[in-house]
Amino acid sequence: IEETYIMVKPDGVQRGLVGEIISRFEKKGFKLTGLKLFQCPKELAEEHYKDLKSKSFFPKLIDYITSGPVVCMAWEGVGVVASARKLIGVTNPLQAEPGTIRGDLAVQTGRNVVHGSDSPENGKREIALWFKEGEVCQWTPAQAPWLRE
Ligand code: GTP
Ligand code: MG
Prior knowledge:
Order of helices and strands: EHHEHHEHHEHH
Helix content: 40-55%
Distance between the termini: 17 Å
Low-confidence stretches: none
Number of strands: 4
Bound molecules: guanosine-5'-triphosphate, magnesium ion
Shape: globular
Mean pLDDT: 98
Structural class: alpha+beta
């Protein structure tokens, strides 16, 4: 089954947006399978964003992600990776559509409040990177038959 790694970044935590952000995925109908508040070590931030290592903003990005606790989440569902990216909105919050998390709640790329995996492969990779064995739960939501025919 498809899964994605969603993370409320330190600005989202500091600004009190954790509940609002979780709520958007919950209301959409995806299944939460992992959740924790976590102070990210530098090495983990560098591994998570390793594809951006050559970018000029990389050191700033690592400082940002390690500047305070983040909320790590695993979400599961058919089509969850692409749908979560749509719910989040494009990278630059000024260009993100109203109705998206970044479009509604942020103003700058360097403070864009939330991360979402960009492919099912990266969803699996990132969940394995951020969660330990036993931290991800399998369960059946009572609403399942009311979400999908
Ligand atoms: P994530 O969900 O966090 O991976 O964002 P994304 O997939 O929309 O964008 P991308 O993976 O290209 O970049 C990762 C993160 O790096 C962004 O979300 C920003 O926080 C940061 N970032 C990207 N481009 C810039 C930039 O030009 N300047 C700064 N300061 N940060 C950037
Ligand atoms: Mg990305």
